[in-house]
């Protein structure tokens, strides 16, 4: 236990928080790219026709692509000396993880976007606004999923915990450290879900009130 | 240095002759003085006459004498032989008065160049050899791809370029024996890491470079590999703790260990996959040059020249010390020592056994490339080791997917029943466990499952697979269970507390959520490779670590998993419809 206390007291928290910031950075990039791609796919899907069919297929494929495999695909299939728009293009670890989350993020946002667009077409702005808590939910799921970066050496929160754990010989100490990690990850996650529930409730009330007002 | 060595040899040879002559004179005088009869005197004269011949014969068997004879023999042909187009390279080197040595420009401690100044162990070995032959040295830059080609093209006479001697290269160049150095793959990690041999490796992540031949051994010992393109990244990744262990050639890490700060934090844990390094000359037209270099290498080991040069450049000298002792042994210190298997090291056998259908695979790859212009490489089908790992990976992936689906469904039912229970004693602990599992990233859940499993059972593939199935089942089953319990709550509210068949109807109502988490479990299975489960991603990462074709391999992997998940989606869609139909019927 002394070894664990030594570890925790010697700068663990600042490095862990630094690591968690990387988790949030990865999730933010994945949501931003996912929003751009997902909304385009949603528009195409709602538009119907050949484009709608192609969009539905693309969403299906992206939904089925395992994040972890996509990450290794990007890591190994993209040449290190690739050129993009005439400039050298090399994916950093953070960017590799973020892009590997894009298929999930884009597919989820496309699904939510299709619902939102249909609500909007049906004249329900509050119904369409449910798109926002859905994106928030996706963001927090992506924060958790970004821990896959530990497998390729990205210094995110879980990587910091695992590095510390490797230095602890006793299983008990390691399990306590893991529990600390769960609590530290759990706080923002549960807070995020609470915020999302709050937004959903508020929107729900607006949805209920609007028809009543209209009547 | 050459001059000093040559003079020393000359003095040594002259001293031997003087001693032999003195012994002869002394014995003759003693015999003439003391022999009593003519016959006895005759016998004594015969013995005295034979003694120097025997001494001479013994002297002639030394590598020094053999080298001196060879050089004398060749020099006797000069300058006439200089113009002969088929002359041996040794003749051409002596005629030109220079030895063209292919050497690397940047391999710290072994061969580096700064402007016109070269330094390193190999640089000094080249200089010592040229001096021994009595010629100048001319350095020519080579790299791993050009060193053998330049020998064949007669642009260099000798390559001393960190070249491992393996059986496959024996057909491309004539390697000088004995070897001038030997490297091994060394595992480097923090002093505190507690790794000392293979038994500590299973389940640990080791950072390696792609294409390193020793990766296959690490994989076989149960290590998880983290791949890097360049060895240069490894010391930095150790320092920033991305890697807790790194495996690379010890000659590479030698430089890092000259940094006191690095040496203070890290240590070489153990080594494996020893590869002898060989100087090489062209296979054709270099017989006499090769023979001269064999003898020089013998002499340099015996006299500690290689050892002193190694110490001067602070490279690992364990091999050189061992060879110094070997080449001092009487049975090795002879002119035939370089052909004596008891004194020599065998070349490294780096060849992997091909599959029976490797030829067809190669033909298909060639046909595909000619047809599409895409460089297709299927390393998992070309060698027996890779094929075996590939088959195992596919089978384990399917087991993992089926196991994760079953575990998710079973745990979803359990969690759902417990959370929907009216007993607070049952409900609240399960709710707490659900919130805990929801707060734990899946990677952490897997690591915890693996840590507990390895504490209970010795590390094995089955244990890693079991821990992965448990972790994936818990993470997804808890969420699906929560959805079931929420459905039960709503049904109770709608239909009253005592509604019959509540659980069955709750399953129908939460079918979409159950299916979503089943699909999620199937999608999450590749992450099991993180704790060493030998599924397909893990197998292919291992295969590509010692072969080529990464782009193709990972593209096929992505296609495989996407197809499997789409099949699971289709299957789960049927399950959902079944559950929903039951709900409608009830």
Explain what you see.
Chain A is flat and about 65 Å long. Chain A has nine helices and two strands; from the N terminus they run H-H-H-H-E-E-H-H-H-H-H. Chain A has helices at residues 2-9, 12-47, 49-64, 67-77, 93-121, 125-129, 131-145, 157-166, 171-214; strands spanning 82-84, 87-89. Helix content of chain A is 81%, strand content 3%. In chain A, a hairpin with a 2-residue loop joins strand 1 and strand 2 (87-89). The mean pLDDT of chain A is 84. In chain A, strands 1-2 form a two-stranded antiparallel sheet. The longest helix of chain A has 44 residues, at 171-214. In chain A, helix 3 (49-64) packs across helix 5 (93-121) and helix 7 runs antiparallel to helix 9. Chain A has 215 residues and is mostly helical. Chain B has 586 residues and is mainly α. Helix content of chain B is 59%, strand content 11%. Chain B is built from 23 helices and 13 strands. Chain B has helices spanning 2-34, 38-60, 63-76, 89-96, 121-133, 147-152, 167-170, 215-220, 233-239, 250-256, 260-265, 287-302, 305-312, 318-326, 358-372, 384-419, 424-439, 442-456, 461-495, 502-509, 511-524, 536-545, 550-585; strands spanning 98-103, 106-107, 111-114, 117-119, 136-141, 158-159, 174-175, 181-190, 205-209, 224-228, 246-249, 266-277, 280-281. In chain B, the strands form five sheets. In chain B, strands 5-1-6 form a three-stranded parallel beta sheet. In chain B, strands 2-3-4 form a three-stranded antiparallel beta sheet. Chain B has a three-stranded antiparallel beta sheet with strand order 11-8-12. Chain B is elongated, with a radius of gyration of 36 Å. Chain B starts with a helix and ends with a helix. Chains A and B meet through helix 3, helix 4, helix 8 and helix 9 of A and helix 17, helix 18, helix 22 and helix 23 of B.
């Amino acid at each position: 236990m002394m070894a664990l206390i030594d570890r925790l007291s010697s700068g663990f928290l600042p490095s862990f928080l630094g690591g968690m910031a990387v988790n949030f950075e990865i999730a933010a990039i994945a949501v931003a790219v996912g929003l751009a791609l997902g909304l385009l796919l949603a528009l195409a899907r709602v538009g119907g026709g050949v484009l709608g069919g192609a969009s539905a297929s693309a969403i299906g494929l992206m939904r089925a692509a395992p994040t972890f495999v996509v990450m290794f695909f990007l890591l190994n299939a993209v040449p290190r000396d690739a050129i993009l728009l005439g400039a050298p293009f090399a994916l950093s670890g953070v960017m590799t993880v973020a892009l590997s989350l894009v298929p999930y993020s884009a597919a989820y946002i496309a699904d939510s976007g299709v619902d939102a667009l249909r609500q909007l077409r049906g004249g329900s702005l509050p119904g369409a606004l449910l798109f926002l808590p859905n994106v928030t939910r996706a963001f927090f799921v992506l924060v958790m999923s970004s821990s896959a970066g530990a497998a390729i050496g990205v210094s995110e929160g879980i990587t910091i915990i695992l590095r510390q754990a490797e230095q602890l010989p006793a299983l008990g100490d390691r399990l306590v450290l893991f529990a600390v990690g769960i609590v530290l990850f759990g706080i923002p996650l549960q807070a995020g879900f609470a915020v999302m529930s709050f937004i959903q409730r508020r929107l729900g009330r607006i949805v209920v009130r609007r028809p009543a007002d209209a009547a | 240095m050459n001059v000093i060595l040559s003079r020393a040899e000359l003095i040594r040879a002259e001293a031997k002759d003087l001693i032999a002559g003195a012994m002869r004179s002394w014995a003759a005088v003693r015999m003439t003085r003391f022999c009593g009869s003519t016959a006895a005197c005759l016998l004594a004269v015969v013995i005295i006459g034979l003694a120097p011949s025997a001494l001479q014969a013994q002297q002639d068997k030394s590598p020094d004498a053999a080298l001196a004879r060879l050089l004398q023999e060749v020099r006797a042909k000069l300058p006439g032989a200089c113009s002969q187009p088929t002359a041996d390279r040794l003749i051409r080197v002596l005629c030109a008065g220079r030895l063209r040595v292919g050497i690397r420009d940047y391999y710290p401690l072994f061969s580096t160049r700064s402007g016109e100044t070269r330094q390193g162990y190999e640089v000094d070995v080249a200089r010592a050899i040229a001096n021994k032959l009595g010629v100048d040295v001319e350095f020519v830059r080579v790299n791993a791809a050009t060193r053998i080609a330049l020998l064949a093209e007669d642009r260099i006479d000798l390559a001393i370029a960190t070249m491992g001697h393996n059986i496959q290269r024996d057909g491309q160049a004539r390697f000088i024996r004995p070897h001038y150095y030997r490297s091994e793959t060394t595992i480097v990690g923090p002093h505190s890491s507690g790794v000392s041999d293979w038994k500590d490796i299973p389940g640990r992540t080791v950072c390696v470079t792609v294409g390193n031949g020793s990766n296959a051994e690490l994989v076989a010992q149960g290590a998880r590999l983290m791949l890097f393109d360049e060895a240069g990244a490894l010391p930095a990744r150790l320092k920033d703790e991305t890697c807790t262990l790194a495996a690379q050639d010890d000659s590479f890490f030698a430089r890092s260990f000259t940094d006191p700060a690095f040496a203070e934090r890290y240590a070489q844990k153990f080594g494996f996959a020893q590869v002898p390094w060989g100087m090489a000359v062209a296979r054709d037209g270099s017989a006499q040059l090769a023979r001269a270099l064999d003898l020089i290498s013998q002499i340099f080991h015996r006299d500690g020249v290689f050892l002193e040069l190694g110490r001067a450049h602070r490279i690992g000298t364990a091999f050189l010390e061992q060879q110094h002792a070997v080449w001092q042994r009487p049975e090795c210190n002879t002119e035939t020592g370089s052909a004596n298997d008891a004194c020599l090291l065998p070349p490294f056998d780096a060849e992997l056994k091909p599959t029976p259908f490797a030829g067809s695979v190669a033909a298909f790859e060639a046909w595909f490339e000619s047809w599409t212009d895409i460089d297709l490489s299927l390393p998992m089908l070309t060698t027996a080791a890779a094929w075996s790992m590939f088959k195992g990976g596919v089978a384990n992936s399917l087991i993992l997917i089926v196991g994760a689906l079953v575990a998710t469904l079973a745990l979803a039912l359990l969690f759902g029943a417990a959370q929907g229970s009216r007993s607070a004693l049952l409900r609240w602990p399960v709710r707490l466990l659900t919130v805990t599992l929801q707060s734990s990233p899946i990677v952490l859940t897997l690591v915890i499952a693996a840590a507990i499993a390895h504490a209970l059972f010795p590390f094995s593939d089955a244990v890693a697979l079991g821990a992965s199935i448990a972790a994936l089942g818990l993470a997804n089953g808890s969420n699906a269970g929560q959805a079931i319990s929420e459905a039960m709550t709503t049904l109770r509210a709608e239909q009253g507390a005592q509604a019959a068949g509540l659980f069955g109807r709750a399953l129908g109502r939460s079918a979409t959520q159950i299916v979503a988490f089943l699909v999620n479990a199937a999608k999450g299975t590749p992450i099991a490779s993180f704790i060493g489960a030998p599924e397909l991603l893990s197998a292919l990462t291992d295969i590509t670590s010692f072969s080529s074709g990464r782009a193709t391999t990972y593209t096929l992997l992505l296609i495989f998993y996407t197809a499997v998940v789409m099949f699971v989606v289709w299957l789960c869609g049927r399950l959902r419809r079944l559950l929903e139909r039951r709900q409608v019927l009830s």
